[in-house]
Amino acid sequence: MGEAGGSTVVELADRLWRAEVERTPIEPITDLRPDLIVEEAYAIQAYNVRRRVTEGRLIRGRRLGRTNRPRQHVLGVDEPNFGVLLDDMFVEEGELIRVEQLLQPRVVATMAFVMATDLGGPGLTVADALTAVAGVLPAIEVVDSRIADWRVRLADTVADNASAGRVVLGGRLTPVTAVDLRLVGVLLHRNGSPIESAAGAAARGNPARGIAWVAGELSTSGRGLRRGDIVLAGPLHRLVPVRPNDHFQVEFAHLGSVTAQFSDGEAAA
Description:
The protein is of the alpha+beta class.
């Protein structure tokens, strides 16, 4: 596999793998490989995803990152990135999310789209995406970085599976034809206090744009999105650091609500 500056894709993937297994953040891999390009970063991501699949995990969908325009400007990029959602990342609403199993968790509200049909090919539009979607769910995403202190450049984030961590989905599936996703308001509470608000338009102007984008990107490798896939449309506000025993509630206009409860941080007996 690719190599530059003495560190191969496999070696860099191993560093991220060990960081997660040992729950010890590492220095940015771009410190070792300043010339690391995004294509190589996706190869690192794919290598570790294949390891997880070999261990018995199932691919359930994709998460989008860097969908917020100001954040894209800071990074000097003009498109989002994506990571892979695996079956063990999903936590049922009401179940404790184990803080001790994560490294540097942060919470964000997002919309989760459930695909009704396969979607792929070049030149996809928002209309194509909406036609292929069964509906949208309110969601809380727990993003987590294997890079120390979240000191990530674009290639670090991509290689680290776009900082995927955990997902909690609400129980109410709303047809996308029933709402204007751009105007859907959202309010995040932590331990009963409102701390963040946003609207769907924070995700690239329309959350459905991300579905069309990622389906097109996946099509270049012959896959596309598939019926039943879940796509997280991207953060709608800043990432909120998690503390032990935190309780979060997200209320979406027209879509319902979802909650996430975190453990006290003590390892289970």
